[in-house]
Amino acid sequence: MAAITRLLKPSPLSLLFKQSLSTTTTAAIVSDIESHHHHHHLTPNFSDPKPSRNFQWVFLGCPGVGKGTYASRLSNLLGVPHIATGDLVREELSSSGPLSRQLTEIVNQGKLVSDEIIFNLLSKRLEAGESKGESGFILDGFPRTIRQAEILDEVAEIDLVVNLKLREDVLVEKCLGRRICSQCGKGFNVASINAKAENGRPGMSMDPLLPPQHCASKLITRADDTEHVVKERLRVYYEKSQPVEDFYKSQGKLMEFDLPGGIPESWPKLLEALNLDDSEVKRSAVA
Ligand SMILES: Nc1ncnc2c1ncn2[C@@H]1O[C@H](COP(=O)(O)OP(=O)(O)O)[C@@H](O)[C@H]1O
User: Fold this and answer.
1) Which segments in the chain show pLDDT lower than 70?
2) How far apart are CA 32 and CA 227, in angstroms?
3) Closest-lying ligand 1 atom to the alpha carbon of residue 140
4) In this structure, which of 117, 155, 216, 228 has its CB flanked by the most CB atoms within 10 Å?
5) DSSP-derived 3-state class of residue 161
């Protein structure tokens, strides 16, 4: 199965990304390649005996909504890589590369990094994955501007876009409670959320997502998870990224998902909304 997928694979995405930034003709070529090789399915179809490629999904949502958490769980379940451009940016700024200082300043102000830098980081990541035989993806934190969405559209067919939603007061609290293990990179949350029902909105509570003991002493807080910067990131999201939701809505690919609470309530509901369940996915992996 993996071998077939590889044989059918058009030019590596990483290359196409690079080309698409400098040419305008790529779109036609790629859509031609894709119409020959790609099935189109909005929701996964596990009874398809010969899916030609792996899932290509996008996760949208405000900072703090939980994109990383749910995208990473789904990536484990579906066996496709979870690629978060925020992680790529943080790796770059913690390195001693030439970009590092410039990036730190932008990120710590809650602004967006330039599309060129993001495409560079993303094609490097895809290239590394391709050389390890990875295929498909769940993108998290990308595309974040209409231009990014348009370029992604030229190089890959996106099957499904999941838009996660949560009330804004909860988003800010969640960002402030966010912690990362400096060793393994996993995300946790120390906030205990108990938002009251008001103005017709239901109340909402979320338990903290605490780290295992071996991570507990290595937790760090992102420099951009302060109240001031989170509010700026939300403002930037509404201005630059919300239009991306409409972009995909008009393509009929957007699935809106209102998170009903924390992981224990939300995860099963999300799987249900996606027509997935654990046992089905496992069966298809064996087949
Ligand atoms: N696709 C992107 N385009 C531009 N900047 C990005 C992109 N992805 C990440 N960044 C930069 O990295 C920072 C952190 O991203 P991320 O971890 O996705 O944050 P969030 O928690 O706000 O979703 C962003 O504030 C932005 O500066």
Assistant:
1) 1-12, 14-51, 278-287
2) 47
3) 18
4) 155
5) strand
